[in-house]
Amino acid sequence: MADKDINPMTKTALELGPVIAFFAAYLWLKDRIFTIGGTEYGGFILVTAGFIPLMILSTALLWKLTGKLSKMQVMTLVLVVVFGGLSVWLNDDRFFKMKPTIIYLVFAGILGFGLMRGQSYLRHVMEEMMPLAEEGWMILTRRLALFFFALAVLNEAIWRSMSTEIWVYFKTFGLTAAIFAFFITQGKLFETYGTKPDDDSGSEG
């Protein structure tokens, strides 16, 4: 399927909409208990059950409108379905809370594996957005791999030691803010190793 142009607002709504809906629904239902088929379910489990089809729908619409999905989007959807499904099936919120840990460990592992081979896999997915010299890509990849590993550890520490409500706030806002802050702090690297579109791939700007 050929790539298609999409309104940036529509794309953002499809990417962030399910997460915002999850957060709003959790605040609404967090203190309620539902009895279904003789089994009691907390609000978090019910919200997770609703989040799974919403995530599938938004990802399908994104694919239909853009004609493509990144490997990151596909993997995230698979993990949402698997770990969210386990949480609902077993009535245990721990599986869904572990999902960010798995995602960030996988990201760190993939980037680390590429670095061991002397390659920046990050370059393959982000080069069009921010062209860098080869050395810049290697530095950024090392930093991001360590950053993802730190996020995985942080997620584990928070969901295991703090309340579900604190974890939901962390998942919705904390992780997003952390990733944004990471790239903001890489300004010096982008300035030092940034290249112009018509520069040779190995030249430094």
Automatic annotation (TrEMBL):
Compartments, as annotated in UniProt: Cell inner membrane
UniProt feature coiled coil, ranges: none
Main location: membrane
UniProt KW Cell wall biogenesis/degradation keyword: no
Family named by the database record: Belongs to the YciB family.
PANTHER family in UniProt: INNER MEMBRANE-SPANNING PROTEIN YCIB, INTRACELLULAR SEPTATION PROTEIN A-RELATED
Function: Plays a role in cell envelope biogenesis, maintenance of cell envelope integrity and membrane homeostasis.
Protein name: Inner membrane-spanning protein YciB
Organism listed in the record: Seohaeicola saemankumensis
